[in-house]
Amino acid sequence: MSLDVSPELLARAESGEVSDAEFVECVRTSLPYAWDTISTVVGELKAGTAEFADNTTPPPSEADRGQLLRALASNAIRGGLERHFGVTLAFQNCHRVAAFQPAAVDSDRYRAFISPRGQLLNQSPELRDC
User: Which residue blocks in 16-129 are alpha helix, DSSP H?
Assistant: First the structure.
């Protein structure tokens, strides 16, 4: 299961839409490692002038890796995080997450990051089973 959904939030979802704020709070509390990693990358992006910031440190455990995978593999979770932080997220392997300014999505750097070549260049034997 990806998220720990409270009975109250589940009841609201069953009866209609929930707000982005409620959903993002559920993500934050359910996936703390993913939240911290993405928050850190977004903070680095917003503190600087670069088009993007990324995390290249592998997660400390398989459980943490799973959180990051669940957060970025789900369109709803990823989209909620992008709206909340005002960025575009990109993902390689099982741990390399990058935050881009939305305007940078049309940049050479973004296209290079998400390209097949970028994916291949980010491979190494120790990441084979991640």
Answer: 20-30, 32-47, 62-73, 75-85, 108-114, 116-121
Cβ atoms of 51 and 59 within 8 Å: the answer is: no
Q: Tell me: the pLDDT tens digits for 59-109?
A: 999 999 999 999 999 999 999 999 999 999 998 876 788 999 998 888 888
Chain centroid to CA 97: 6
Give the model confidence (pLDDT) of 27-56 as tens digits: 999 999 999 999 999 999 999 888 889 998
HSE-CB for 20 with a 13 A CA cutoff: 10
CA-based nearest residue to 130, from 78, 77, 73, 61: 61
